[in-house]
Amino acid sequence: MSTTSRLFPLDLTQLPNTLFGVQAVRVEEYTDGTTYVVRAEAPGLDPDKDITVSVVGNRLHIRVERTEERVDKAHSEFHYGTFVRTLQLPPNAREEGITAAYVAGILEIRVPLTGATTPGREIPVTTKPPRTAKQQ
Known about the structure:
Layout: H1 3-7, H2 15-19, E1 23-24, E2 27-32, E3 35-41, H3 47-50, E4 51-56, E5 59-66, E6 81-88, E7 99-103, E8 106-112
Parallel strand pairs: 1-6
Antiparallel strand pairs: 2-3, 3-8, 4-5, 5-6, 7-8
């Protein structure tokens, strides 16, 4: 699970996409041993034409495009257009060896991880006396 999704129940990295009308790809992410796994919903697509996966810096970009067939429809709840998702890779992600496979409407991206990461450290919070008007 990414740091962002652990800290916030909403994925704030997707806020610009939401504000500007670009729909996000729905994903789930987890670590499977020494591999970071991202699974994205992408039903009914041709992975050769409709799906692009790329890595830029420490970010994984998923872009899918579903085009609408021009047929006289009485009703449709399908979503058409471009769908994007950008995920922060774990600090110990290894760009070499990333694989992506599309099976039964699910895009699965596997990112190899190098050894353990530094867990970070807690920063102590100190207290100070309140400032008075003269001190400001």
